[in-house]
Protein: Asparagine--tRNA ligase
Organism: Hymenobacter artigasi
Amino acid sequence: MSLKRSTVKELLASQDLDREVLVKGWVRSRRGNKYVQFIIVNDGSTIHTIQAVAAAENFPEETLKDVGNGAAVAIRGTLVASQGKGQAVEIQATEVIVLGAADAEAYPLQKKATSLEHLRDIAHLRPRTNTFGAVLRIRHALAFAVHQYFNDHGFYYVHTPIITGSDAEGAGQMFRVTTLSADKPPLAEDGSVDYTQDFFGKQTNLTVSGQLEGELAAMALGSIYTFGPTFRAENSNTARHLAEFWMIEPEVAFNELEENMDLAEDFLQSLVKYALANCADDLAFLNEQYDKELLARLHSVADNAFQRLTYTEAVEILKSAKQKFEFPVDWGTDLQSEHERYLVEKHFKKPVILTNYPKEIKAFYMKLDDDGRTVRAMDVLFPGIGEIIGGSQREEDYTKLTTRMAEMNVPAHDLDWYLDTRRFGTAPHAGFGLGFERLVLFVTGMSNIRDVIPFPRYPKNAAF
Ligand code: ATP
Ligand code: MG
């Protein structure tokens, strides 16, 4: 019987010693002397490595010449209690097979630390670093926790389309999807591009949000969520924006703004707690390496109620703040991230949920407040991040909704299907969008959103 491969994670946790094991992974380093060689292996199952000890009498130097940094190896041997410090167990190697050698001179991941900027240029190899291994494992854990949370709370996962025929939400910042020739598109009689000849017979784009379709599903299934890729061609070259990112959008029939805030707060706290409970080793590494306050911040967010206040109250606080802002604040202007971060990091020192924004700066579908000036919007603001969630109670009244659409020049004929939910059995409902990468950014303590997705897309960059 051939021996089954064990992961490094399994071996490090094993109490079952003095047995034959087989491990496969990539060499992180090899060192030693003329009597013994130590081969340090990582296989991605954990941030930790296992040490294989190869005695020179069994492994003359030429048998190990390809066992260098980055090489893929299979090592067979006996799992034993380690003689050395720093690890509980190690492998006394009996066989070392090089599955794939790596040219040591050319291998881009050398022992000395490499900048995160440089690693972005070699994003195809960066998952092999401790940092990106940790980030990717945490990203996975958070995605799993999202599904688990919603499943446990009676939400259904709905797959909304990625190619959309309406540009109601994202006019101006959408990526066009077309099969027409770029240099010689068919023209209509008036000289404009004839989209009736395009693949779908009309103009189509990549979605900026699954919300509108999510609302349709919520008005049938009650509680739903989407979790899929979204695309924004906004030219925001910031550390918090990507052109392709993943968004989680729960939508709940019969919920009003208050319940929407309760859901957002409980959801975020649950996700942070899940990461603390399940990603301890990776978080400890990031805390040590990048941000000594990371763990304390995660615990603080998980355990303390968020501050809730209205946009109007926030503007008062900002106007009387001692701090000088680059952008002045006045009732009616959208808050910039410097304002959001002042509220969260300086004033309240905890996450903030801002509600009831002026209708002029929010989307057409948000429910109008009784004063006619503000809407039932809610933004959740996080330390170090700014906006992590944007959401609202939706306008369920057909007349008020179509009036808002007309005022904001949203073409109603494109959204007939959306308006039907307000014609047939309309009801209060509310939801929000959580940018998945902003969540991963917060939980990992990384400082640039390009470092929390495997292959980031941003202006002038679509490598890999
Ligand atoms: P911002 O003001 O930061 O651009 P937004 O108001 O455009 O955000 P929404 O349209 O409300 O954001 O989208 C919901 C959530 O999606 C945001 O709270 C944020 O977490 C995330 N998000 C929005 N745009 C991006 C982006 N370009 N890259 C990554 N995440 C994003
Ligand atoms: Mg935006």
User: Anything to note?
Assistant: The two ends are 40 Å apart (CA to CA). The chain has two domains: 8-100, 126-173+208-451.
